[in-house]
Design a protein that fits this description.
This protein is α/β, with parallel strands linked by helices. Strands 1, 2, 3, 4, 5 and 6 form a six-stranded parallel β-sheet that branches.
């Protein structure tokens, strides 16, 4: 089995003037340095993600779930991923509606796959958003990674697209090492025995 894992980095914010693409670009650079991943950055701002959902759930509908045609590229990226990193801000002690909508339009695409988090914001650095995401993704049978990257007060702790903390890259590589381990272990498990949903 190929030792390179398909990593999808999701830019969760679609807000005007958002910081998410800056953080995601740096994370993607770190993931490419790790050499264990084939990296795809998926920006939710590139998709029209409806808030109104069909009556039937994606879990119940399976492959016949009626997603809008504009979500096909997003669905394909999520389905093909071995691992995810969600880059999220914190809005009112939680994560953006855009990210929730993208999650809710899917189900099996998350199942038995590892998810890591990179969060940013004010003093809390997006920690509340991550706590909520962990609850949601556990319901979808994803495996959340304990150690994330947290960037409090990102507006003053980043310069020229990079964090000023000299240890940030080392922390990122540690996170990516754990994510790669889980990606390999879970991909092997899924290939051996289909996950019971």
């Amino acid at each position: 089995m190929d030792s390179t894992h398909k990593l999808v980095i999701i830019v969760g914010s679609v807000r005007e003037g958002r910081f998410g693409p800056v953080a995601a670009a740096w994370v993607a650079e770190q993931a490419r340095r790790h050499r264990g991943f084939d990296v795809d950055v998926v920006d939710l701002a590139a998709f029209d993600i409806p808030l109104a959902l069909p009556a039937v759930s994606p879990k119940a509908a399976g492959a016949g779930y009626p997603r809008p045609a504009g979500l096909a590229r997003l669905t394909e990226a999520l389905a093909g991923a071995d691992a995810f990193i969600m880059v999220t801000p914190e809005y009112n002690h939680s994560y953006p509606a855009s990210l929730k909508a993208a999650i809710d339009w899917h189900f099996t695409q998350w199942t038995a796959k590892p998810v890591a988090f990179v969060s940013y914001g004010g003093a809390a650095g997006g920690r509340h958003a991550v706590l909520h995401l962990e609850n949601v993704l556990t319901e979808l049978q994803a495996v959340t990674i304990r150690d994330g990257l947290v960037f409090p007060n990102h507006f003053s702790t980043w310069r020229d697209g990079r964090p000023l903390d000299p240890d940030a890259s080392r922390h990122a590589q540690a996170l990516l090492g754990r994510l790669a381990w889980w990606a390999g272990a879970l991909r092997s498990a899924r290939a051996t025995v289909p996950y019971p949903v």
